[in-house]
């Protein structure tokens, strides 16, 4: 292999998983190009409410490792929130108690406690101080960090992974992996959000009512992000007005001041869900290497840095299949 190209890596996919992976690779000295169909501002990641939380994904032990490594990174990034978009914000995870979290939270998180009745009116809630990521700042920051490390982003539509002509290709295509791999086990879970003016709310809340309907309120700079939905195998990216009204109604039940907040935007994202995250190295017949890093569902932000570092390790020539 030509010495001028042996360090080349193409990362396919420009969402939070692809960008974070590209940053880690570039900062380890690899020459990185990111191929992305959309600019970062129009990726699925741009829609995320983006609270760090160990959402259940498979495999559980690896997911815990990825999440806690990402937590370490976000806590450092939160020292410069206006630059990175990461802040440590207090709030309540409803219908969750300390016993449920001891398996992963012992040690890494401090200050976890039961929410008081004044903080949360549901049957049980967990008060926590967690990373909350403003993706409108974080994604462009990742793009700039990649450029500072010598990486390049190219907007292009990829119809087959074989088009990527580098010695190492990293597949971070999310839902696109369904067609590109192809992997029929990747499927969409539709999430709809409503963005409103913030009437002064400073803490987040996540809740689920008796019927299983979720509601969450995330305060970001200049706005509140309200959610949400989780509709399996629904491909529509068009906001549904009736769903939006229901989201606002559920969130106003948690924080009454939301009822009169002016609506700023409606957003829809399709979470790339898979039975288990695919993070593995695939040697190709022509001697090149394909590394897969997709299938994170709604946990992309939670595990991004842990998965990126593991994927970067799999790109190393010394890594085995």
Walk me through what this model shows.
- The structure is a single chain.
- The protein has 321 residues and is of the alpha/beta class.
- It is 28% helix and 30% strand.
- It is built from 8 helices and 14 strands.
- Strands 1, 2, 3, 4, 5, 6, 7, 8, 9, 10, 11, 12, 13 and 14 form a 14-stranded mixed sheet that branches.
- Strand 9 (204-208) and strand 10 form a beta hairpin.
- Helix 1 packs parallel to helix 5, helix 1 packs parallel to helix 8 and helix 2 (60-77) crosses helix 8.
- The longest helix has 18 residues, at 60-77.
- The two termini are 19 Å apart.
- The model has no long low-confidence stretch (mean pLDDT 94).
Given helix and strand content, the structural type is alpha/beta
Q: How many angstroms does the end-to-end distance come to?
A: 19 Å
Q: Tell me the quaternary state.
A: single chain
Discrete helix count: 8
Enumerate the spans where pLDDT stays under 50 for 5 or more consecutive residues. Answer: none
Overall mean confidence score, pLDDT:
94
Task: Return the string of H and E elements.
Answer: EHEHHEHEEHEEHEEEEEHEEH
Q: How much is the radius of gyration in Å?
A: 20 Å
Count the beta strands: 14
So what's the overall shape? globular
Largest sheet: number of strands, sense, barrel closure: 14 strands, mixed
Query: What's the helical proportion of residues?
Result: 25-40%
Approximately what portion of the residues adopt beta-strand conformation?
A: 25-35%
